[in-house]
Amino acid sequence: MSYPSEGNLQRAIAFVAALGIGVATYIAIAESGGGSPVCLAGSTGCKTVAESSYSHVAGVNIAVFGIVGYALLLACAFFASDLARFGGFLVALGGFGYSVFLTYIEIFKIEAICQWCVASAILMTILFLLCATRLVAHAGNEDEPLPDRA
Amino acid sequence: MNDGGRRKQLLQLAAGAAFLAIAVVLVLIVVNASESDGGDTEIEGAGAVNRALSGIPQSEMVLGDPQAPIELAEFADLKCPYCKAFAEGVLPAIIENQVKNGQAKLSYRLYTIIDDQSQPAGAAALAAGKQGRGWNFVEIFYKNQGNELKPYADDAFLEAIAKAAGVKDLGRWNRERAELEPEVEATTAEARELGFTGTPSFAIKGPKTNGLQPMGTVGGTGELEAAIAGAS
Fold first, then answer.
1. pLDDT by residue (tens digit) across B18-76?
2. Of A62, A75, A64, A66, nearest to A131 (Cα)?
3. Least C-beta-crowded within 10 Å: which of A45, A69, A122, A123?
4. Roughly what angle, to the nearest 10 degrees, separates helices A115-138 and B3-34?
5. What CATH number is associated with residue B84?
6. Cis omega (within 30 of 0) on the bond before A147?
7. What's A132's domain CATH number?
8. How far off is chain B from A44, nearest CA to CA, in Å?
9. Residues A75, A80, A83, A84: is their CA dihedral positive or negative?
10. Where are the alpha helices (DSSP H) in chain A?
11. In chain B, which residues have their Cβ closer than 8 Å to the Cβ of A90?
């Protein structure tokens, strides 16, 4: 089976992680001071989810944990080492697992869908697939610098 | 260790982490799902209440179409046995004939007169209303109402009512019910300003009234239907 080159995977991970930082930062800023992100098409799902008890863990907005997670994934994309590959996989696995749990909570407990949370869950799923592919395809390779595009 | 050995070890660790993550997510889901399974307090009549109110719009403590021209406001105490009697004997006909067709909407306002538990119970109803289950909470509370002289409406009872009413986010409900007690005090003050001395008391607002007009205690369904017709 042929896999994408590690350079391409690193660039894809960096791009998606940067998008994730943007989404999580927007959610965190919108919810600071008791507000909520703006849902499209007049949906009130974002407000309902933001007001729910699941929007904070130990008093910290979960979007802040999202920013940290995406930032770690972005950092891992800049290094071609087993530590970066495995570390990135673990962070993406944790983020993906938590996204699955939060999506369950939105559908079955809160009964409201926040479009921004769904966007973040999709990005985290893509990152998990990219990081898993990177680990399976390139684990054990000698550490190499990020190849040039040219 | 050579590259092949290191690769094998990393992939084994990754597989272990993946299994662990699946287990943790499943445990979190099971724990959260089991939190909505009733509790020690046995609650009766929830299914019938939830079925009866299904499909009727609710916004906070207002039951019915928010655009309905007539607002019939009930000032009540959850621990009041007369309020329970009205909820079960008088209001169902109003809900069926005037609320469901969009002619009137019912608003439930707390007027606490029984004891110290009336206010936190009222705030718990308001917090359920924030999640669209306010009337479910009120009617299920009445179905399980105890002796007004006894302190049965403790936190465990209120939480069991909230669960039976279908309040999904109990964490939010718990947080907000503490914050909503001033709102109960405000509607109790409003009831006194309207001159009410007992529960349930009613007031009505419509195109032919000058704001919210106090009616006080009423005799039954016919009097409420006549008031709605007169205010239209």
1. 999 999 989 888 887 776 544 556 788 888 888 889 889 999 999 999 999 999 999 99
2. A75
3. A122
4. 150
5. 3.40.30.10
6. no
7. 1.20.1440.130
8. 12
9. positive
10. 6-31, 45-51, 62-76, 82-104, 115-138
11. 17
Residue B40 lies in a domain: no
Centroid of chain to Cα B38 = 16
Contact B10 A135 (CB under 8 A): yes
Measured distance CA(B45)–CA(A113) in Å, rounded: 30
Is the distance from CB of A127 to CB of A17 less than 8 angstroms?
yes
Domain that holds residue A109: 6-138
Determine the Cα–Cα distance for residues B131 and A44; give it in Å rounded to an integer: 12
Task: Tell me the per-residue pLDDT of A72-104, one tens digit each, with 9 for 90 and over.
Answer: 999 999 998 999 999 999 999 999 999 999 999
Mean pLDDT, rounded, for A40-48: 77
Which of A89, A105, A140 lies nearest to residue B7, judging by beta carbons?
A: A140
**pTM of the model as a whole:** 0.63
The conformation of residue B135, written as its DSSP 8-state character, comes to: H
- Cross-chain CB nearest to A52 (options B22, B36, B169): B169
Integer CA distances (angstroms), A149 to A5, A6, A134, in order: 11, 12, 18
Separation between Cα atoms, residue B23 and residue A140, nearest integer Å: 27
Q: What ipTM goes with this model?
A: 0.77
Angle between helices A62-76 and A115-138 (to 10 degrees): 30
* Token pair for B34: 């089991």
